[in-house]
Amino acid sequence: MRVDVLTIFPSIFDSPLRESLLGKAIDAGTLDVRVHDVRDHTTDRHRQVDDESYGGGPGMVMKPEPIFRAFESLGDGPKRLLVMSPAGRRLDQELVRELSKEPWLVLIAGRYEGIDERVVEGLGAEEVSIGDYVLSGGELPVLVVLEAVTRLVPGVIGREESHERDSFGADGLLDHPHYTRPAEFRGMRVPDVLLSGDHAAVERWRREAAVEKTRRNRPDLLER
Ligand code: JCH
What we know:
The protein is α/β, with parallel strands linked by helices. The protein folds into 2 domains: 2-152, 3-Layer(aba) Sandwich (Alpha/beta knot), CATH 3.40.1280; 165-223, tRNA(m1g37)methyltransferase, domain 2 (Trp Operon Repressor, Chain A), CATH 1.10.1270.20. The protein has 8 helices and 9 strands. The structure holds ligand JCH. Residues 84-86, 110-114, 129-131, 133-138, 141 line the site of ligand JCH.
């Protein structure tokens, strides 16, 4: 999968793209992530990427021209273009699965009060929100989308830690609790059934524990 990121803060992406899963997938060539500085696509002396809001009010808006130029510098080929926004379609595992099937994604991280609407209109960008809270820019949302999507790309994570173990798997339940050694820690015991070796009993316990955790933490998931 190829992913191009358009941002005015490219250095934010350095360490997250080097570490862990993303870093390994990039090293292995499974993932080709390219980060572009939108400011490099300005044409004026001041390399201006923002301007005042038409209609007035406080706060600046990202200008469309450098974003269009950055996008058009990527070359030809079918791309799915996403722009991060608190006013976007909320990211969920269903959208993540869909995006993981795309061969080429372009993710735009804005700043200020957001981006000129003509990026949505003229480039066909889809607005995506990572949740109902407000951040100061789209860089962290881009990294969230990248990590969620790329772990589903074949070859990015190992077989054994595969996707059926997701909290938002086919059954729509949260994941069950996990335990490792020691069997007793500061007076807290691991449930006996998990030490029993009875695989059917373990499966029944996990299912019930998953339902209970979902009821407690996310009752909305059980309604559906
Ligand atoms: C962003 C901003 C509009 C603050 C600028 C670009 C995404 N889920 C999610 N939360 N926040 C974002 C996000 C994404 C891109 C940008 N900002 C700051 C934009 C606002 O209107 C209320 C407030 C925030």
